[in-house]
Amino acid sequence: MTRPRSALHRSLLPAGLLLAVAGLAIAGPAAKPGQAELTDHTYATGAPMTAEQKAVVFESADLTFKVFPEGKRIDGDATLEFRATAPVAKLVVDLDRNYVIESVSVDGTVLPDSAYANPEGQLTVTLPQPLAVGDEAALRIVYAGEPHVAEKAPWDGGFVWATAPTGEPWIATAVQGEGCDLFWPCIDHPMGEPQVVTQHITVPDLLVAAGNGVAMGMDQHDGWRTWHWRTENPNTYAIALNIGPYELLEGEYESRYGNTIPLRFWHLRGNAEEARGLFAEFPLMLDFFESTIGPYPFAGEKMGVVETPHLGMEHQTINAYGNDYKQGEYGFDWLLQHEFAHEWFGNQLTNVNWDDMWLHEGFGSYMQPLYGQYLRGDAAYYASLHGQRLGLANRHPIVSGRPMLEDDVYDKEDGPGGDIYAKASVMLHSLRELIGDEAFFSATRRVVYGTDSPEPGNFAPRYASTGDFIDIVNEVTGRDYRWFFDVYLYSAALPELVATRDANGLALRWKTEGDKPFPMPVDVRIGSVDGNVRTVAMSDGTGHVDLPAGALYTLDPHSKVLRALPHVVAFQQDKLQRAKQAEAEKKIKK
User: Fold this and answer.
1) Is the confidence at residue 537, as pLDDT, over 50?
2) What is the number of other CB atoms lying within 10 angstroms of the CB of residue 525?
3) Domain map of the chain by residue range?
4) Coil, strand or helix: which one is 213?
């Protein structure tokens, strides 16, 4: 079975685009004419793992690709090593059924066709001998075919076959939404990360294949080049192919933690001057993240960026960049900064389920106001937060509390969509204001590294859920803040602060979806901009401020609390209506 493309997608929405998508449906492209449709299983990513997948440790993947730009096809040869943690008679991996499987082997023995089947894109292999606990097996799959083509990467996943301005092939993959099984056999679930991935990427001579992790050399033979790469604990959708007529900028960053981090940027020929300007931002971003969050997680490999024919994606140690070197309003490249944030929030810290995707995107989005504050001061911080605030939809909770497919989370009609970016970001601002900087950044470090005192070498990539983060916040603060997350993450509507004048002043009451408790303190400024600010405890969700008759007041004058604001809703509705009217007029003119 096949399924239609969804609406809003994927992992990069700057503040400026959040508003644009808040009320507008963005239809996904149909499959390219002539290419085979994806099955439901392949199109979806994050489906529950099978019992067999849960019963093994994915120790390594050795992936060989030969890429044929003219035919837009690949030959693949993958050896996957598994160790059993429970008795298992079959190995199950995910791979697009549209590839022709030429052979399947286990520990060097070629299996008969009857030993494996891949009807819906979930390849099931019956082992010659069942594995006992602790046993290991090497599964080799040789396959070939035309990979799924992305019509609008990265919103639509797959291969991008493009031509560089200088005429050579320019190829990239971006598969967050549909998953790793679009081009290599894997366990297509956030918790299916292999411990080690080695890639051998063969491309036509004169082309470069920039890859994840550490460069292991390049072989040249018969008009082809094979580039070798090795990386550890990659996010499942972080493995990527990036092929083109690249030139390389190299440097080193001396970390505040005493280690040296290789800096690498593969850019197209002809873009050297612009590339040097972007490359100069690398050390600034590293210093921000290391001083604010903690050590760069992949310092033993590299901080890598590659220019791509699509906008971008957080491919571990080789982030895709396609923002055309645009100047940012706050003096930095938003795309580079956002994707780099995912090295911490997405690659070092990976959500256990797509339902927890806000841990990637909310934290990743909050890093931009923080970086603006780091570079430019408070004006950039609050302006960036305000831009995010204007894009909230508040139609569905950010977290549903049940396992979700990636596509369902990003569906703006039936899922939280863009709110996992902006709403979660502004929520984190409110949390920081509520518990203070020391507790906020301590909790952030703990969820990212598993420790409040990360040092190079004392942490490893880890998984976490929304519940894990809430528990960490409670542990760090010594207080129970579940009420905070119940309202912001598990409810759709924002809390509303109802203010009513009475004989003695101003009565305040929090109104929440489902009448959930919300003892959020709130500041009230009495008088003009230099007036007295009082903090109202609101311990039972209500409070009172004495006011002289006719006195002016301002609720939450320093914008600490994310709450319902009628003027923002009116602005969004007006913008949406004007956009619809403009679109209708455009159709009439045609």
Assistant:
1) yes
2) 18
3) 48-147, 350-488, 496-561
4) coil
Average pLDDT over all residues of the chain: 93
- One fold for 48-147 and 350-488: no
- Which of these ranges, 14-28, 256-270, 363-377, 473-487, has the smallest mean pLDDT? 14-28
By the 8 A CB rule, do 132 and 97 touch?
no
Residue 5's pLDDT is what?
42
In whole angstroms, give the CA distance from residue 400 to residue 397.
6
pTM of the predicted model, to two decimals? 0.93
Q: Which of 321, 41, 71, 58 is nearest to 174 (CA)?
A: 321
Give the Å distances, CA to CA, from 311 to 13, 153, 172, 339. Answer: 11, 7, 11, 11
Q: What percent of the chain has pLDDT over 70?
A: 94
Say if residues 142 and 76 touch (Cβ distance below 8 Å): yes
pLDDT in tens, 78-115: 999 999 999 999 999 999 999 999 999 999 999 999 99
The class level of CATH for 48-147 reads mainly beta
pLDDT digits (tens, 9 = 90+) for 565-574: 999 999 999 9
3-state secondary structure of 207: coil
ω into residue 389 within 30 of 0, thus cis? Answer: no
Tens of pLDDT, residues 465-501:
999 999 999 999 999 999 999 999 999 999 999 999 9
Write b or e for each residue in 426-443: b if 16 or more Cβ atoms lie within 10 A of its Cβ, otherwise e: bbbbbbbbbbeeebbbbb
Calpha distance 476→103 (Å, rounded): 53
DSSP bridge pairs for 263: 251, 303
**Residue 65's closest CA among 304, 226, 205?**
226
Cα separation, 416 vs 516, whole angstroms: 20
Q: What are phi and psi of 336, to 5 degrees?
A: -55, -45
Examine the pLDDT at 430 and tell me if it is beyond 60: yes
Eight-state DSSP code of residue 86: S
Query: Phi/psi of residue 53, each to 5°?
Result: -70, -35
pLDDT digits (tens, 9 = 90+) for 26-72: 333 344 566 889 999 999 999 999 999 999 999 999 999 999 999 99
DSSP 345: B
pLDDT at 162 over 60: yes
* Cis peptide bond prior to 456, omega within 30° of 0: no
Pick the CATH number of 350-488 from 1.20.1440.20, 2.60.40.1120, 2.10.110.10, 1.10.390.10: 1.10.390.10
- 6, with CB counted inside 10 A (0-12, 13-18, 19+), is buried
Contact call for residues 554 and 525 (beta carbons, < 8 A)? yes
C-alpha 362/C-alpha 388 separation (Å) is: 11
Convert the pLDDT of each residue in 148-159 to its tens digit.
999 999 999 999
Nearest to 205 by CA among 227, 187, 189: 227
Best CA proximity match to 166, nearest among 69, 267, 245, 266: 245
Kindly list the distances between the CA atom of residue 439 and the CA atoms of 84, 257, 352, 473, 474, in Å, as whole numbers in the listed order. Answer: 40, 22, 24, 8, 10
